[in-house]
Amino acid sequence: MSEEFAGDTPAWTRDHAAGLHRDESNVAPIIYPPDERLDEDLHIWDTWLLRNRDGSIAEIDGRRVIFALTSPSDLLPGKRHDVATIRYFYSTDGENWTTGGRVFDDGTLGQRQWAGSAMYDPDGDDGEVYFYYTAAGEDDAEELTYTQRIALATGGTVHTDESGLRIDGPWDHRVVLTPDGDWYEREDQSRGMIYTFRDPWFFEDPQSGETYLLFEANTPVPEGEGECEDPVWEEFNGSIGIAHSPSGDPTEFELRPPLLDSVCVNQELERPHLVVRDGTYYLFISSHVHTFAPGLEGYDALYGFVADDLRGDYEPLNDHGMVLTNPENAPFQAYSWLVYDHGDELLVTSFFNYFDYNRPSLDDVSLLPPDEQMRRFGGTLAPTVRLGLDGDRTELVGTLDHGHLPLRRESLPTTWWDQADRESD
Ligand code: FRU
């Protein structure tokens, strides 16, 4: 990314989003509950893999590691964001996962920790982990607050022996980024829905070798300046933020202008991340049906954009931006998608959210009686989805089991997805 960047921020526009629709290239099959959750005592949702600095998935003594936001499985799912705790899990085959435990014992920033990313640096005596996360809520407020800062924990190390894998502290926690109020909206500037400044994602650009953090944010929209045709749309101001580390030090970042925004279109562009393939940059986010501005029909879905370089003129994939969504009769069955490269295909993991197959769709799950909310919450990893990619077009080509996360060297089953699965419910 050049420091000289001075162009307009690429936009996901209402014209693009007006084309959003479900079709056979983007609707995942119905998800059925697995025999077992990842951990019966836990609900898990946003999940990410431990990666090497170059973005490849870290493998430590034959084990891959995931991190997830977790809450006790007897807690009402809607309350989980208020108590989110990051735990790690590891696996030798990418199918069977062992719960490692909490990542942090104490010293975390924020009242609770939301999504992030983790980078493994094998240099030194023990492999060190750089752990980027969202510090949500003010540290010493008594009430639950929604302030969001981007935090980094360093000093954690990974150990393995015959009994398994352990991530140990002590960790050193610090805030690395807060919104500047100019490129990135601060809490006191937000109108309507709460602002966002979260979900840091470490990225080393393979073309330049430069070091970045991507994150979810909002673009400040001054009131009454007519930015949107209808002033009501002005609070729908999502952006994909980026910060640069000029020295390459993964602890020091400076804000840069957003990579893309969606002013007048959508308020939340969640968990941004990139996959770079043959010099083409694919930028992915998750978003919700209810965060689209009035007049647009969106979905709980994975959305994507493509450009020729990191700071390029991102255009929505498939013209409208939608890559993967839930079926009409289970519109909230999965969320928080994360894409990674698997050679010929892309693989997409997400969590199994509210399912309601064979029932009318749920507009607001919190209106259901508590036992129904519990019964219908997946709280584990969803089946991994296989995506075909051809230029700026994507297509679902199959699924793997719940929580199956193969490494690139591990081949995928040769059987193609049975079309009938997609139609049955
Ligand atoms: C997406 C998300 C993230 C956030 C987390 C909080 O599911 O909203 O943006 O970090 O959930 O639970």
CATH superfamily, please? Glycosyl hydrolase domain, family 43
CATH architecture: 5 Propeller
Helical content stands at under 10%
Number of strands: 23
| Global Rg | 20 Å
H/E series, N to C? HEEEEEEEEEEEEEEEEEEEEHEEEH
Labels describing this entry:
425 residues; 4% helix; Tachylectin-2, Chain A; 43% strand
Describe the model.
The strands form four sheets. Strands 1, 2, 3, 4, 5, 6, 7, 8 and 9 form a nine-stranded mixed beta sheet that branches. This protein is globular. The longest helix has 6 residues, at 370-375. It has a single domain (14-423), classed as Glycosyl hydrolase domain, family 43 (Tachylectin-2, Chain A, 5 Propeller), CATH 2.115.10.20. The protein has three helices and 23 strands. With 425 residues, it is mostly beta strands. Helix content is 4%, strand content 43%. The site of beta-D-fructofuranose has 15 residues, from strand 1, strand 5, strand 10, strand 14 and strand 19.
SSE inventory with pairings:
Elements: H1 14-17, E1 42-52, E2 64-72, E3 85-91, E4 98-102, E5 112-121, E6 127-136, E7 148-161, E8 164-168, E9 172-177, E10 198-204, E11 211-218, E12 237-245, E13 254-263, E14 270-277, E15 280-287, E16 301-307, E17 315-316, E18 322-325, E19 334-342, E20 345-354, H2 370-375, E21 377-381, E22 383-390, E23 393-402, H3 419-423
Parallel strand pairs: 1-5
Antiparallel strand pairs: 1-2, 2-3, 3-4, 5-6, 6-7, 7-8, 7-9, 10-11, 11-12, 12-13, 14-15, 15-16, 16-17, 16-18, 19-20, 20-21, 20-22, 22-23
The structure holds beta-D-fructofuranose.
